[in-house]
Amino acid sequence: MINSSLNKFEITKPPLDEVVPEMKHQKLGNPCESYQYVDTDGSVMFYIARYENQEGQKTFLPWCWSQKTKSFVCKAWPENRPIYNQQELAERETAPVLVVEGEKAANAARSIKGLPYVVTTWSGGASAVSKSNFEILRGRKVLLWPDADEAGIRAMNKIAEQLWTFSEVKVLDVADLPKGWDAADAIAEGWDWPMIFEWAKPRASVFIHKEESEKKSSQQDIKSSVADELIELASSSADLFHDLSDDGYASLSFESRVEIWPIKSEGFKKWLRNKYYKKYTRSCSDVSVNTALEGLTAIAVNEGETHEVFLRVANVDGSYYIDLADDSWRAVKVNRDGWELLNKSPVKFIRTSNSRPLPTPVPGSGDVDLLWEHVNFRREDQDLLLASILESFRPNTPFVIQVYLGEQGSAKSTSQWRIRDLIDPSRVMLRTAPKTPQDIAIAAYRNWVVSYENLSSLTAEQQDMCCVVLTGGGVAGRQLYTNYDESAIEVKRPLIMNGISAFVTRPDLLDRSVIFELPTISDSTRLEQALCDEKWEKDRSKIFSGILDLFADTLRALPAVRFESAPRMVDFAKLGEAMVVARKKTPGTFLKYYTRARKNAIDIVLDGDVVAIALEEFISKQDNFGVEISTKLLFEKLQKHQFGTHQHFPKSPRGLGNALRRLAPVFRQHGWEITQDRKEDGVRVSIIPLSKE
Fold first, then answer.
1. Scanning 48, 172, 520, 641, which has the fewest C-beta atoms within 10 Å of its C-beta?
2. Residue 84 CB coordination number (10 Å)
3. pTM, two decimal places
4. Which uninterrupted H or E stretch holds 230?
């Protein structure tokens, strides 16, 4: 309960089982809309009701629970009023925050697809800022969007004054806009996030309190001189350049190695600070370093040469290069002539804070078959796994996703950990399930291999993002979500994921999947983890050397591989066939195993997709000549199936049409051709057995 002498109604949170109040006002009548303010756990704190009279005049009134009357009363929360949308603020604690004026504007902004911000507001309007508690925004990056009037601008400035000591605050300039224009008006006019981004980009400015401004002004000369010294020091000691995306880099030459660092990376900052201290025997502030980095980036972009940079793997002039990510910055060169260890790489490799070293390969020591002592795969899947590993080192072809399925106790995560340790060792080898498609893109930006464990499902959007990552594509985002510069993250990476049951269900992702069903390990054959790890450390260099041997042999055999009929993922299939030839096995062996694996993947879709299940039952009741039916009628018939009311079942004939287009390749593999044609009476679906065409 709130302690306040003004709280004579004993205003507090309502009981958890209390229903939503009617909020009917004696003079204003029933509200046209109401807004619920909740605590960080989602429990209700109070309501704001909106009333309008016949002239359109608006009135906002609070409704709070009175412990004294045991009912909701039309009284305001007395002090430290909670702000709007606190549950999402708590759940997305690292996301930036957008503050608008009014619940209507907040809800409108929350509806914007792709908005990276958590949206909030406060109750009571422009005059009630001082009564609201913004402590939940401590440490957050906050953007303030005022209403375009004096009261709105004044209110946001008051909020900024509260936040500036413990948050990074930016304010949008709306002084030139029509009076009263706000975020809700922008959304009502059809603005989406890209439009808002372009509009807001030149209007956002960092809020600086008057006292802080005066303090910064008095220190500016000192900071500028240190920044100038840092720029001069770095410019004379490092080779500054930029990549195709105009990101700045520094090449640092040492006696036995060359290091490549993004100018704004922690690695370059450490080098620059150390260099400065050795010359001037004094440290430099973060402000001076950041100012210098901005200047060095400008030099790299405007005066430096353009070079392509690579993470872990590169394909240049017919050879593949693999960064060992060790302290000596060595790399391995692989081509059809063999492989060699290079003390200095001819390509520019960069690293992230996640990068960890691969084992040092030793010529003549390779033994790839030692791998089977450390991972749990069926014998018939071993060639598929080896081809998947080799494909992970080929950035010039589309990647596959390795999917490990198995019950508890089948060493899925251990096997995945070992496989990744041979391709792209990382600070975090196995990640938990992604929450958004953007999580997958960010993981890909920071790692060569994207690796998730213990998945139970992936949304359609997440599976689409996996396809983008496997084939290569750009993902637009905001740089650290702290400013309005768009950063297009362009990535192409191999993926490895595991789970107990099937979680890849979209046909386009299944097309790129190699699914491994791992056998259960009996208790009698299970070994202690410490002994397994010790043996792994002993064998990993030999296994990695064997992989490099096999990679070179496969590249040598690859040009001779030909298919009469090219399968899906033909680059991967050709690599696999070349690999089995290099392993002295019968030609065609890999294609046989790969075809079987693809059929198993298709069966997974048919067993796990609610539309596929309903459609398969519908087809089973048709004659051998197939059927032609309107999309609307087919939708009605499939709705009668037990899965017709499932949450993932389409909600309209149009949605069913989209699902059928997605499933058409799957049913084609099972002997049914599904096509859709628009005719005078609407869209009609033809389902015809291929054998009857």
1. 520
2. 24
3. 0.64
4. helix 210-237
What does each C-alpha distance from 183 to 104, 160, 196, 203 come to in angstroms? 9, 18, 9, 14
The amino acid at 46: F
In the chain, what are the helix, strand and coil shares in percent, each to the nearest 5? 40, 20, 40
CA distance 158 to 151: 11
CA distances from 4 to 9, 67, 175, 518, 618 (A): 10, 14, 38, 64, 67
User: What's 382-447 look like in SS3?
Assistant: HHHHHHHHHHCCCCCCCCCEEEEECCCCCCHHHHHHHHHHCCCCECCCCECCCCCHHHHHHHHHHC
Question: Around Cβ 637, how many Cβ atoms within 10 Å?
Answer: 15
Q: How many CB atoms lie within 10 A of CB 418?
A: 20
Q: Look up tokens 């059927």; give the residue.
A: 627
Is residue 342 left, alpha or beta, with left meaning phi > 0 and alpha meaning psi from -120 to 50? Answer: beta
Count of beta carbons in the 10 Å neighbourhood of residue 453: 18
| Positive/negative CA dihedral, 261, 264, 270, 275 | positive
Q: With contact defined as beta carbons under 8 Å apart, do 329 and 310 qualify? A: no
- Residues 340, 332 contacting (CB under 8 angstroms): yes
Reported as a single tens digit per residue, the pLDDT across 160-216 is 888 887 778 889 988 888 888 888 888 888 888 888 888 888 888 766 554 544 444
CA distance 162 to 434: 35
Percentage of the residues of the chain whose pLDDT score is greater than 70: 93
Reading the block at residue 183, the tokens are: 């975020």
Nearest by Cα to 477 from 433, 447, 441, 443: 441
Q: Using N-to-C axis directions, what is the helix angle for 589-608 and 610-620, rounded to 10°?
A: 90
Tokens 């033909």, located at residue:
570
Buried b (16+ CB within 10 A) or exposed e, 545-582: bbbbbbbbbbbbbbeebeeeeeeebebbbbbbbbbbbb
At position 231, the amino acid (one-letter code) is: I
